[in-house]
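Work Package 3 (structural annotation) set out to generate three-dimensional models for the target panel prioritized at the project kickoff. During this period the team completed the workflow that converts sequence records into discrete structure tokens, so that structures can be stored uniformly alongside our sequence database. As a representative example, we reproduce one entry of 853 residues exactly as it appears in the project archive.
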Amino acid sequence: MLVSRRTFLKIGTAGVGVMITGSGQLARAAGTQSLITRVSAACQRLAPQGWQQLLLEATDGQLNIGSTNLKDELTKPLQIDRTVPGFGDFNLSAKRAIEPGFPDRSLLYHAFASPAVVAGRNGLQLKSFPTLAEIEAVLNYVYGVNPPTMDILRRRAAGRPLGIVAFALQYEDGPDSVHGTHAELCFARAGIARLGNIEPFYDSRSRSFLSLDPARPFDFRVMPRQFAPYLAIQMSGSDVEREQFGPQDALKSVDGDLKFWVPIHKLFDGRECLAGLDLDVTLERGLRNDALAMFHKWLMVQGLMNNWSGDDLENYPFLIKDESIGSLSQKSDYGAGLLIPRPQPLTSEARYKGQLLTFPVDGSYTEDSENIQLSSLQVLPAPPSGLPRYGIKDAAQDSQRPAPGFTNIRHRVLPGGHVQNLNDQPKLKEIIKEGGYNTLHYTDGAGDGWIEAKCSQLTGLVDANIPAYCMVGLPDFFPKVKQRDLMLWWNQDVPKPIRDALWAIPPLALSQTRIAANITLPIGFSINDVTVTAMITQPDRTTSPGSAIKARAGAVQTPNGPLRRGKTGMPDGAAGVFDPGWETSQGIYFSSPSEQTPLQKFLAGYALGSPFIEDAKLCAALGAYWPGVAPDSTRVFQPDKQISGNVYPYPTIAPLTDQEIGSAPLPNGQFMPWDGVRGPDLKFRVISGQRHAVYTDAWRTDYIDLAGTMTAALTSQIDLAEYKARILAMEAVYWGLGIHDTEFKDGVDLTATEKILSVKAKWAVLSFRNAVESDKDAIVAAAASSAASWQVNGPKLYFFHVYRWEGKEFTDPSDMRKVLVKVVEEATAYVSGTDILIKREGQPWKLDTSMPM
């Protein structure tokens, strides 16, 4: 009998100790210079590059960053003109270039840190932009120009705990800030870096790192994440002044009972940080990827065949850690606290003691089809037999992930060390079911860990030292689309009649998920500390009691420069649902053996796929059930995915175009599918008078074999408006086919949502693309034959070719890596907004406007 999740967790979390590895000095060499000297150097470099003129324009000629007396210049009162491009969302209460202790109210910091500040009033572009180190110099000066004493900070804490806390931080424009009213420096005790195979590139104009190199479309840049140490106070979510610090998108029914660490003063080296003290501040990082170790512990606990245990599991590659995953940068232009993942291949063969590292595939486990998802070994619990789950049952947030959720078992290692790719074996399914072979382990550079600040001079003067949680997650195929933006759109703008069944579960952002950091890490995160991913900001101590709510309800400032709409490595850009996840996954903790004890959740990187691209394949191929901003490749593969032994069709929700999935070439004739897998043939194959759609077999598709062919060159161009338009267009097609959400009700076995998704899944998308000029005549003719005066309703016009299928697919007799699916009925459609011109087989064109607006 398989061991329960509670029993496993007792073993899996036993013996967790404390270990700190990897450190980064906070620019001590620069500490010999005064703060104003560093700020002056930055101003002198940038002044002749257009910055002097820009800041004179923004202050009616009052702020001259070329002044010989820069210190007085920066602290004098100013008249600020927010009509100058880039300053529209600069805090209305601000009146100085440097406001001691408050970055949001410091004009120079806004100018340096905001990606909206790129040109003057006359449109003349700035010729150069600040480095990360120069932005950090100004930030440190904001806190150091009038340094407080520890007694002053204690009084500000007003009896609340005061601690050294590490934060991920990002200066966000008004729409993306915590309060949404003006640009703010935003904080979270969790941050996301992303792995890649080439070095990072900082684009100073956009004040961000870029994930792609246009000259190398099949490579991914590593994406760093910045952290910084602060003195912080622990505030209650029920405080009268809670609205001063956030959290962003507060959970009113939950947050009132929680505690949030809120920054009040930045820590840095030297005598100018805290009056009367000469600080020596360091950041230390610890990173771990113990996926293989956890997998072998799971094999042991379940009583399955296992060839590695004990001390071996503490060695590489069972346990990958620290510099093998990432390090704090020592590059002077990057400043302090920048975590940079190590550039490396997306996946590699695992080796141990000079040999390929393998594990035995136990047939007693794989013979049960519930333990196989497509052709991957599945650790996640299977759904109830015979019922579709559509993400509701398998993504339930109380599901344990004791080891990598999915593990590749398709590369058999034969005696002598030869690796046999089972995807090429005609009896792949039978081989997996029988088991009894050694399969190859793979490694990747993903992981999770911590960033901790140390300062010996503050020993005994603070109540706690709280590390940040850091994740090194998968590459991002949609860098312009934040998960939070999708969540807010779904919650606020999507019509209620279609909202509940648009996805099976809500598209939550990680920033709105109250969950602990990985408690199995040796740094000692607490299971009761569940606000690590909350987005907050520094409280404004000048606001009088009771006035914060009123102030925040005031005018929303409108940015008037370029907006950086996309992910920055903060939790608002990451998914807050886990099955197993994209940036991280989750584990379950219990405080007693009683089954009645409430389970508590924590983030856990080890529960992602092994290797991570095994998980990427499954999450993308089953796009409807997992509402993360990730590729929806549902239509790339055959409609019935046959998972865990069940009929398992999924509908397309956020379609990728024919070019993005490689069903159609680019204008230059090149095919560039995002994952290297060519989508279905755009023409049906007719066999004995019966039409069939032709697909690459999902069971024989292995992203390990395709790692060098993955690309975000096309998907990275999709912004939020395009992403939303595609989702609504797909939904309009379903309504045009007569699938109306409002007509479904909850039943005994299936909810209304499950029923809707099940009916949608009977239709597969063969072709999806933007309508082009050559479609014009067809559209005119279709509109005329429908006797409808149809006009394009919105900026987007899409073409769909869909079909209804039935029965099981069968292997293409001429190519075992292809499958054929029987076509029962087809339909074509043009969609603009929520209006659709649709022609079902055997019927005339008609205009359908049934989908709610």
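Confidence is low (pLDDT under 50) at residues 1-29, 391-396, 542-553.
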